[in-house]
Write a structure and sequence with these properties.
The protein is of the alpha/beta class and 498 residues long. It has 10 helices and 21 strands. It is elongated.
């Protein structure tokens, strides 16, 4: 790691701060490591009591009972605590051990943790499923470490960056480093409806110590980088050191211990479920080669880029276009464009697609260009990926900003959208939505904006892309594979013939 430079003059965890050039200890919001830091404790030695043995010499001596140390089967390792050469790497060593102890008590799930050097981290998530890194100071990874972590995350691993006791220099460094690890990703604060906050406990709100502000009830402050509907990179704003360590009221930025533990259990539950899901579907999606498809008169669709998580799936549109080609015989362009909303090329595309998970806001320039595009006859197809409320809220607000006095309305059940080429009535839904609705089926819930006598926007508040890729996530609120594809084909045909 390059983060600790040669300017280091004090490296004792027993001091309130560690002084070296650019360590961040002089930045507002810096929280030092605790003065009484301890090293990682050894794993507990289990005792197996009540086992009998026959002593020497043999009978008539009476068999006696003894207790002796055993090496029990080690539970599977889920957490790898990654350390570099930051001197506060193990400033709060009981954090993960206590979290796993509480998780075993509350969920009857037994996992282990381990400590590795950053350069020992494997890019294979099977070797270290969840990598945890913490510090109180500014830091930066080496190019090689970033490359390893990038491969690790793309293959299904989860990276957790924890600012020690909520120290702001460490938080700012974590946001920067995550952006460097996956530059094409978008790091956003996760909305309270994110499944991370509901995978085991419901944590729409948590109680936390906020430095001089004292104890308050707030929304969880977690940022994430999502890859194909899976939050693969997690940056905590409030350190989860309080899972095991006593907080120092007035200094620390941490959840209260109970909520830190619940948040940690949720992250573990979510990461485990999403990794298992990814393993089950990773070979399911097949990208289609468009080299032999005629471009003449073909249907094309462009995906809109905006300041947010604008791309949630990578194969959904090509698969949908392939299905549309098979059903209708219409030539299609699989290699769709990805364009910014202010790009002049926007007007070269008769149909554009927009999606996301989290809240977002368009700039005045983006609103004007998108309004001009729709006024000129273009069509916008949009979906709240995984049925997420954050995107849904923002999308409805932006439509109201584009067209004051006009609003999205439900598509009538007798609309051509539900009749051609597929007749769509009741649709199978994902397991997560089934649990919410208490029913495995639901009617289609498309919405539209009719502007100047024609439909300018078709919007689904429930997820479609997971079904198009034949792999809805376990937390998605959307439609099943075949029904999502049927509805998507209908939307494409409607947009091409309106």
């Amino acid at each position: 790691m390059h983060g600790l430079r040669r300017g280091l003059v004090v490296a004792s965890l027993g001091l309130a701060s560690i002084l070296y050039a650019g360590d961040g200890s002089d930045v507002p919001g810096f929280v030092p490591p605790p003065k009484d830091s301890k090293q990682l404790p050894p794993p507990p030695a289990n005792m197996s009591g009540g086992e009998t043995f026959v002593p020497f010499p043999p009978p008539p001596a009476t068999p006696m009972s003894r207790s002796e140390k055993k090496n029990p089967p080690r539970p599977p390792t889920i957490f790898t605590w990654a350390i570099g050469n930051q001197p506060d790497a193990l400033a709060t060593p009981r954090t993960l051990g206590n979290l796993l102890k509480v998780m075993k008590r509350d969920t009857n799930t037994d996992y282990a943790s381990e400590v590795k050097g950053l350069d020992e981290i494997s890019p294979d998530p099977d070797a270290n499923p969840i990598v945890y890194f913490t510090t109180h100071y500014n830091f930066e990874f080496s190019p090689k470490q970033r490359e390893t972590l990038r491969e690790f995350m793309l293959k299904g691993g989860t990276l957790i960056l924890n600012p020690g006791r909520g120290s702001k220099p460490a938080y700012d460094s974590a946001i920067r480093e995550l952006g460097l690890i996956i530059p094409q990703g978008s790091i956003q604060q996760l909305s309270p409806d994110n499944p991370i906050f509901h995978s085991y406990y419901d944590l729409d709100k948590i109680d936390a110590f906020l430095g001089e502000q004292g104890r308050k009830t707030i929304e969880p402050r977690v940022s994430g980088l999502t890859i194909d509907c899976r939050v693969a990179g997690i940056v905590l704003r409030l350190g989860i050191d309080s899972c095991a360590e006593d907080v120092r009221d007035g200094i620390d930025m941490v959840p209260v211990p109970e909520d830190a533990q619940r948040l940690g259990i949720n992250i573990l539950s979510y990461s485990s479920a999403m990794r298992a899901w990814r393993e089950s579907v990773k070979n399911k999606v097949i990208l289609h080669d468009s080299s032999n498809v005629s471009r003449a008169g073909s249907l094309s669709i462009a995906q809109l880029k905006y300041n947010g998580e604008w791309k949630t799936r990578h194969a959904a549109l090509p698969i949908l276009l392939s299905q549309f080609n098979q059903v209708s015989g219409t030539p299609v362009k699989y290699n769709y464009e990805e364009i910014g909303i202010t790009d002049k090329k926007l007007f070269d595309n008769p149909v554009v697609f927009m999606t996301g998970h989290e809240q977002f806001s368009l700039s005045p320039e983006e609103r004007k260009n998108l309004r001009d595009y729709l006024d000129s006859g273009g069509m916008l197809i949009a979906e709240a990926c995984c049925g997420r409320k954050g995107f849904d809220f923002s999308f409805r607000r932006e439509i109201n900003n584009l067209f004051p006095g006009e609003s999205l309305e439900a598509v009538a059940s007798d609309s051509a959208l539900y009749r051609m080429p597929n007749r769509i009535g009741q649709m199978k839904v994902t397991s997560a939505l089934e649990n919410q609705l208490k029913s495995p089926i639901a009617g289609p819930r498309l919405m539209r904006l009719n502007h100047d006598g024609k439909d300018a926007v078709i919007y689904s508040p429930l997820g479609l892309q997971g079904g198009w890729e034949l792999s809805p996530s376990p937390f998605a609120h959307g439609y099943s594979d075949s029904d999502a594809l049927k509805l998507g084909v209908n939307i494409l045909l409607y947009s091409a013939t309106r």
